[in-house]
Write a structure and sequence with these properties.
Strand content: 15-25%
CATH topology of the largest domain: Dipeptide-binding Protein, domain 3
Structural class: alpha+beta
CATH architecture of the largest domain: Roll
Radius of gyration: 23 Å
Strand order of the largest sheet: 8-9-10-1-11-19-12
Number of domains: 3
Number of strands: 21
CATH class of the largest domain: Alpha Beta
């Protein structure tokens, strides 16, 4: 982001704050309001359509619950399942359900678990269902998932936010109202129950006192869509919201300097990258590895980290966060404009070329502009295209986007779970695949020896980097604003998770 643009953003922020300063807080003593950076859509109310990205989980954590899920201090924390065991041969996973209720008072049963898996159609659904032989329900509180062959990654996909397959919905209710009816009035087993939803505007939830873990501290949880970051900042300042998600560097710096506002920035599992969607087209310049490598070498990752996150993120070298199991830890690429221009000339583009659209994950328009400006310096000319987030995610998933894309994901799991949606032939966001990489992925999935698996996954990650399938940019420091009413914002309590969690632990003063 240019200095002039940064100053303009700060000035506009101050103007908005000043104009809203006389507005009195629209809060009661038991309501905690969160200003979210994206347009809320009703498909995020249903775990059966989880998109392989972390965004829907800001809704799933309060409204629903999973057999096993990431929680403070434990990536695989037992939740609706009070215990889990796996057979010595790796084929059978047994779950004993605790006594838990859905919001309509009905107990969570083994049939609900089986039903939730069978109806799941989100990220990695084909992979999971290809691996699972059957789900047995020997008792109302017991579930047995039998695999076709030993698969050491099963819990990384089923028991984390890599997918929504392990998040449980009530079978009888869904069958009664249908999928569309469920999205309009969902019933979950989480710490908060549904009150109302105005798509794109506001989701209202209220505490579910019978939640098995603990009754929520907050009586009412409201999520408001506020896509403009200056308005989000002002809403915290005036008390209209208590927590606001995601700010760029200039506004975050202003928040940090503002009395009664706190800036928090947990380092999350979100990795951002430049994706060359047309690399699979032999007629595209991006089909040439030298062109993709030139684009990667053009990026000043350190400057982007400073501009976007006040330097509180990390420069990235891979899809996979270094904290993940089996992550290959390598230094990030160093900007080398001279080498980038040389590579373009060797590829037949000494004067660069017109690259079409560059579509960043919303709302990261400033990131897209920074990347486009740095590509322009080596002759790659791209036009930044802005989209609404839900539309972007649908278009990405349906393979409708062209040119360049800035993608990101913050889902938990391990190295294999992170790579699958983007690298494999059946990956939900994969626009193409390489047979060599596909073979490597399948080989590691069958290897039961942990050390050998680690070697295979390291080789796969190295191959993805050598192919320059993407240009990694940064690991995100998720900048949020917290207002004076909040005693516990839940920022960073669940390692790698960007949003306020666990929701039942949120607390007002």
């Amino acid at each position: 982001m240019s200095i002039r643009r940064s100053l303009l953003v700060v000035v506009l922020t101050l103007v908005v704050i000043a104009t809203m300063a006389s507005v009195s807080p629209a809060q009661d003593s038991g309501t905690l309001t969160i200003g979210v950076h994206v347009t809320l859509v009703n498909r995020w109310l249903d775990p059966g359509e989880a998109e392989g990205l972390i965004t829907p989980f800001m809704v799933l954590y309060p409204l629903h619950d999973a057999l096993v899920k990431p929680m403070p201090g434990n990536l695989y924390a037992p939740s609706l399942a009070e215990s889990t065991t796996v057979s010595k041969d790796g084929l059978t996973h047994d779950f004993v359900l605790r006594k838990a209720k859905f919001h309509n008072g009905e107990p969570v049963t083994a049939e609900d678990v089986k039903f939730s898996f069978d109806r799941y159609k989100g990220a990695s659904a084909k992979l999971l269902k290809d691996k699972v032989k059957e789900i047995q329900t020997p008792a109302p509180n017991r579930v047995r998932i039998v695999l076709k062959e030993p698969w050491p990654d099963f819990m990384a996909f089923y028991g984390t936010s890599a997918t929504g397959a392990g998040w449980i919905v009530p079978k009888k209710y869904v069958e009664k109202v249908g999928d569309d009816g469920f999205k309009k009035a969902p019933i979950g087993a989480g710490p908060f129950k549904f009150v109302s939803f105005n798509p794109g505007i506001e989701l209202v939830l209220e505490a579910f006192p019978e939640y098995w873990r603990k009754a929520p501290q907050v009586k009412r949880l409201v999520m408001k869509t506020i896509t403009d970051e200056t308005t989000r900042a002002a809403a915290v300042k005036t008390g209209q919201v208590d927590i606001a998600y995601l700010f760029g560097g200039p506004i975050a710096e202003e928040i940090r300097r503002t009395p009664n506002m706190k800036l928090v920035a947990p380092l999350v599992y979100g990795i951002y990258w430049l994706d060359f969607l047309d690399q699979w087209d032999p007629k595209s310049p991006w089909h040439d590895r030298r062109v993709r490598l030139a684009a990667s070498l053009a990026l000043d990752r350190k400057a982007i980290n400073q501009a976007e996150m006040l330097g509180l993120g990390k420069e990235a070298s891979s899809f996979v966060p270094p904290e993940f199991e089996f992550a290959l830890k390598l230094p990030p690429p160093t900007q080398d404009v001279r080498r980038a221009k040389q590579l373009l000339a060797e590829a037949g583009y000494p004067n660069g070329f017109e690259a079409g659209d560059l579509t960043p994950l919303p709302p990261y328009t400033s990131l897209g502009e920074s990347v486009a400006q740095q590509l322009q310096e080596i002759g790659i000319r791209a036009k930044v295209r802005s989209m609404e987030r839900a539309t972007f995610l649908s278009s990405w998933r349906e393979k409708k986007l062209k040119g360049l894309l800035i993608g990101a994901t913050g889902a938990a799991g391990n190295a294999a779970a992170r790579l699958e949606p983007f690298v494999t032939k059946n990956g939900i966001y994969a626009y193409g695949s390489d047979p060599e990489l596909e073979g490597m992925f399948q080989a590691q999935a069958k290897e039961l020896d942990r050390k050998k698996r680690e070697i295979l996954l390291h080789q796969l990650q190295k191959a993805v980097l050598d192919h320059v399938m993407v240009a990694p940019i940064f690991q995100q420091g998720f900048l949020c604003a917290v207002g004076p009413r909040v005693a516990e914002a839940g920022a960073g309590l669940v390692q790698g998770y960007p949003y306020s969690a666990p929701p039942e632990d949120l607390k007002l003063k």
